[in-house]
Request: fold
Amino acid sequence: YVSTRLLKLGIEVRHNLSVFPLVRSELPAVAEEVGEHASLMIEEGGYGVYVYIAEGQNTVDTIALPGTQTHLHMTAPGKAILAYMPSEKRDYIIDNHGLPAATDQTTTDRDELLDELETIRQQGYAVDRGENVEGYHGVAVPLLDRAKEVALGSISVYSPGRRSTVSDFEDGSVDVLMRVANIIEINYAHSP
Reply:
């Protein structure tokens, strides 16, 4: 059987991520402000991996626990990462992992996804309209490197569709995420 010794190893790896301490200090306030769960996702091996989740007062149980791995194109944080990924790496991931569907809402067409990634770069955030889990939507913003070109990861918030519309949730949560991402990016740029 798998022992809890792997938990210690995973926690050590997470603490060694350069962006993690900065996110850990800011993300709980996001979860509290929006009342939902807020998370940090990174890209690893061509997949998105949730490495930290903070819970708000209205958080519902989700399938995303720290360590959960998912296809990048299915989630708002994954799409935020893909949008700021060098095109060669993005193409490699799409070619090797494909664009499978988790729900009827999942984008499975390459050209449609590339158009959406361009929109994400222009507006600065990504949206998930039930693409990974039916009836569950979210928004995410990338955490960009010092040159503002590559995503170190992304932060997101998610809500059940019955609690709010995608538009209402998008309007309220994007500003919170962008404000916090800006703080994290400034602290990252000035960290040793």
Q: What stands out?
A: The chain has a mean pLDDT of 90.
